[in-house]
Amino acid sequence: MPYQDYIIKEGKFIGKFDEMYKKFKDPWNLAKLNSKGGNFDYQIINLYCNQLKQLKKQKLKTLEIGSGYPFLSDLLYKNNNNIFATDISETVIKKSKKKFPKIKKKLYINDFMNFKLYNKIKPDVIILSDITWYVLPHIKKFLKWFKKLNKKTYLIHSLSIYPKNKQKYGKEYFYDTKSMLKFFNLEYLNITSVKHSMRGDGKQIFFLAHNR
Ligand SMILES: C[S@@+](CC[C@H](N)C(=O)[O-])C[C@H]1O[C@@H](n2cnc3c(N)ncnc32)[C@H](O)[C@@H]1O
Fold first, then answer.
1. Residue 10 domain-assigned?
2. Ligand 1 centroid, distance to 151 Cα (angstroms)
3. For labeling, which of 36, 93, 138, 141 is most exposed (least CB within 10 Å)?
């Protein structure tokens, strides 16, 4: 059974992330991609963070929700950000604490909708990198919470999107850049889209937005 079947199968959400991390060492081949000189998507997110750092003129507190093995948050840590990362899978967080000892105290097991931890951290920027398809029914409630935050908070969003005739899951929410931006309905500071070079005919859509 491929790792994808633990998540979405025949257009239906399964969501067995912890079981998947118990069985598969490197789902999405992220470790492999990272060892081969870096992940282009992470570089774009890192650039957004650099811009925000310049704007704030101080160290940035970043919170990545759904970090998996935190390659992205580790990159941000190495670039002098105060990072926090969460994932719903106990297995991936436990393994990550061993694999990334320098940031082990900043890794948390937490569900996307548990805002208690986020309210404690009070991040400057929240990062959703390739998690949105898995939390679609909760995004509107998350955005409501995000928009009501007293502190000015940024959102960096990065997501793989495939052409409407290929994408099986989530099309009723959005299916391209325009419908995605309309769905999120935020103040956008930057929108970037990059064609996948090695992952079929999809593209990665990034945006940087803020809550007020
Ligand atoms: C494709 S990986 C993305 C990893 C990382 N953010 C990146 O961009 O490389 C998606 C991650 O989201 C996590 N996830 C899925 N549903 C979640 C939820 N409800 N709360 C927190 N994390 C969740 C999964 O366990 C998985 O590690």
1. no
2. 25
3. 36
The pLDDT of residue 120: 98
The three-class DSSP label of residue 198 is: coil
Q: Decide if 97 is inside a domain.
A: yes
Which atom of ligand 1 lies nearest, measured to the CA of 112? Answer: 20
Which residue puts its alpha carbon closest to atom 12 of ligand 1? 66
3 inside domain: no
For atom 17 of ligand 1, the residue with the nearest CA is: 88
Question: Which residue(s) pair with 65 in the sheet?
Answer: 86
Triad 137, 142, 147: Cα angle to 5°: 140
Residue with the smallest CA separation from ligand 1 atom 27 is: 68
| 157 part of a folded domain | yes
The domain in which residue 63 lies consists of 39-210
Sheet strands (E) in the chain: 8-9, 12-13, 61-65, 82-87, 107-109, 125-129, 154-161, 187-195, 203-210
Q: At residue 42, what is the residue type?
A: Y
Confirm or reject: Cβ of 44 under 6 Å from ligand 1: no
Total domains, the chain: 1
Question: For the domain that residue 205 is a member of, what is the CATH number?
Answer: 3.40.50.150
pLDDT at 200 over 80: no
- C-alpha of residue 163 to centroid of ligand 1, in Å: 22
Q: Whole-structure pTM over 0.85, yes or no?
A: yes
Mutate to test the pocket of ligand 1, among 34, 45, 87, 132 (most ligand atoms within 8 A of CB): 87
What does the pLDDT read at residue 153?
97
